[in-house]
Design a protein that fits this description.
Blueprint: E1 14-15, E2 32-36, E3 38-39, E4 46-51, E5 54-59, E6 64-70, E7 72-73, E8 80-86, E9 92-98, E10 103-109, E11 112-114, E12 119-124, E13 127-132, E14 137-143, E15 145-146, E16 153-160, E17 163-170, E18 175-181, E19 183-184, E20 191-196, E21 199-204, E22 209-215, E23 217-221, E24 225-230, E25 238-242, E26 245-249, E27 255-264, E28 270-276, E29 278-279, E30 286-291, E31 294-299, E32 304-310, E33 312-315, E34 325-329, E35 335-339, E36 352-355, E37 367-372, E38 377-381, E39 386-392, E40 394-395, E41 402-407, E42 410-415, E43 420-426, E44 428-429, E45 436-441, E46 444-449, E47 456-460, E48 472-477, E49 480-485
Antiparallel strand pairs: 1-3, 2-49, 3-4, 4-5, 5-6, 7-8, 8-9, 9-10, 11-12, 12-13, 13-14, 15-16, 16-17, 17-18, 19-20, 20-21, 21-22, 23-24, 24-27, 25-26, 26-27, 27-28, 29-30, 30-31, 31-32, 33-34, 34-35, 36-37, 37-38, 38-39, 40-41, 41-42, 42-43, 44-45, 45-46, 46-47, 48-49
Length: 488
């Protein structure tokens, strides 16, 4: 089963240093006066602000839509915002409000997630249920687990004879595929992998078994192929996966090797014979495989596109939104790129040891950040050629064609060609939002445009995380927060 991570309510605050006013001023006109103890960005025309210990909601005129009364309020999304109140033990319990400030779901749940389509997943006392964002109940709190909806269905789980069993519900809460499986995966392309009695197969959205449950494991699957693991030993076993090999253990504790291949998802006919120690998913028509602890890349016909000789491979293609490249690492500490859109191009190996660390790697930007042996960061384009030499101490993710960099202890920004569009000169620098990026210089913050012009000079307290949103940005003057408008 795919692991489902329930995110804790991330509450990134723009917080003042005390509750006592400090006389301060700015030269830039304030749209909403700095009278709040903390402030969040505007979303959907509304923003959460703190007065004393409580949070409320204001509109873009600065008027309260809802007076402060909650311990926390998240940003509005699709007309609703998560709110929190402390329980008797000091823990936040989560509820929901609409844009009028009406409480549609009482804050007595944890966790609570606002899913796509206006469905709310909530939990109390270890049981999960569903409601509409309006508060109307879809199903009561009765499941041990409810997953995310994929293609209209979500996996659910309850314990049967003290063991977890899984099925699927639709958006109305109806159990459309009975709880019966030991493990399941989410639906995609109309299919889901399921496991019963230690064997895996594939079902469709009606619950019909289309690939018999006979495999030791099933990996990825799409509209035409699925990858499978199968041992030649006829044992009832549990599967042991490590990053580069799959084994099964029988009732006597004996290990058996498992080999991976691929088959047609409609007929079950084997398309790529089981021969690999591990087999990653196909993205953009290619998958990387492992054999004898060496990695290579094959296409959907099974033809080897990159020899199985590399020490490591990393897929950056991220289906539907990533860069169409695989990063190849050789045993000598060099790396190169295999571009799935130009698979016959010569692979250029560079003297880089690794990828630069990434916070979220949004992908799709057309550049790969790499680190050399001296821990300096540069950029390789998707052709495999160097765009920016390794000279930066820090280089963050590219977003909308720009990346924040650090050189000689100062921050600036480069574009996808490697050009320094903002020279390194700031003690901190944010990303562009609505054409402006926040910066800090000499202990004060302002906003710079894409051409490097300081459109709003440094005059506010350090507000590097306060970006423009809905045409406004939260700024701090002294120890109070207010809002300015985007002058662009």
């Amino acid at each position: 089963m795919r692991t489902i991570t329930v995110l804790l309510l991330g509450f990134s605050l723009f917080v003042g240093s005390s509750n006592t006013p400090v006389t301060a001023s700015s030269t830039h006109p304030m749209t909403i006066e700095a009278i709040f103890d903390a402030a969040r960005p505007f979303h959907e025309g509304l923003a959460a602000v703190q007065s004393g210990e409580q949070w409320g909601v204001i509109d873009k005129s600065g008027s309260f839509v809802m007076q402060p009364r909650y311990n926390l309020i998240e940003d509005f999304k699709n007309g609703y915002a998560l709110v929190g109140q402390l329980d008797s033990k000091g823990y936040n319990q989560i509820g929901l409000i609409d844009k009028t400030g009406k409480e549609t779901i009482e804050p007595i749940y944890y966790p609570l997630d606002l899913l796509e389509g206006g469905i709310v997943r909530l939990s109390r006392n270890g049981k999960y249920g569903l409601r509409e964002a309006s508060g109307k109940q879809i199903i009561p709190l009765k499941y041990d687990l409810i997953g995310d909806f994929r293609e209209g269905l979500a996996l659910v789980a309850n314990r049967v004879n003290n063991k977890p069993k899984y099925g699927y519900i639709d958006r109305s809460g109806k159990l459309v595929i009975p709880i019966q499986y030991e493990d399941v995966r989410e639906f995609k392309f109309g299919y889901a992998a399921v496991c019963k009695n230690g064997k895996w197969g594939i079902i469709n959205k009606r619950g019909k078994v289309i690939i018999p449950l006979k495999y030791n494991n099933i990996g990825s699957y799409d509209e035409s192929l699925f990858t499978f693991a199968q041992t030649s030993s006829k044992v009832s076993s549990r599967v042991i996966n490590d990053p580069f090999k799959t084994q099964v253990v029988d009732a006597n504790g004996k290990y058996h090797n498992v080999e991976w291949g691929a088959a047609d998802i409609r007929t079950g006919k084997v398309k790529i014979a089981a021969q690999y120690d591990y087999f990653w998913e196909f993205t953009n028509g290619y998958a990387w495989v492992v054999k004898n602890n060496r990695k290579g890349i094959i296409d959907r016909s099974g033809r080897i596109s990159v020899p199985i000789q590399y020490h490591g491979i990393e897929d950056l293609s991220r289906p539907n939104n990533g860069d169409p490249v695989f990063v190849l690492y050789d045993a000598g500490g060099k790396l190169g790129l295999f571009n799935t859109e130009n698979p016959k191009a010569k692979i250029i190996m560079h003297n880089y040891s690794n990828l630069a660390s990434s916070r979220d790697y949004p992908g799709g930007e057309g550049a790969v950040r790499v680190v050399d042996k001296n821990k300096k960061i540069g950029v390789i384009g998707l052709t495999g050629r160097e765009v920016a030499p390794p000279k930066y101490d820090e280089l963050r993710d590219f977003r909308d064609g720009f990346a924040v960099m650090k050189r000689d202890k100062k921050y600036g920004m480069i574009d996808l060609t490697g050009k320094e569009v903002i020279a390194p000169q700031y003690s901190s620098l944010g990303y562009f939002n609505e054409g402006l990026a926040s910066f800090t210089k000499n202990g004060k913050s302002g906003y710079v445009d894409i051409k490097g012009n300081e459109v709003i000079p440094a005059q506010f307290e350090n507000t590097i995380t306060s970006n423009f949103s809905n045409g406004m940005a939260a700024v701090r003057i002294g120890n109070r927060w207010g809002y300015i408008s985007n002058p662009l």
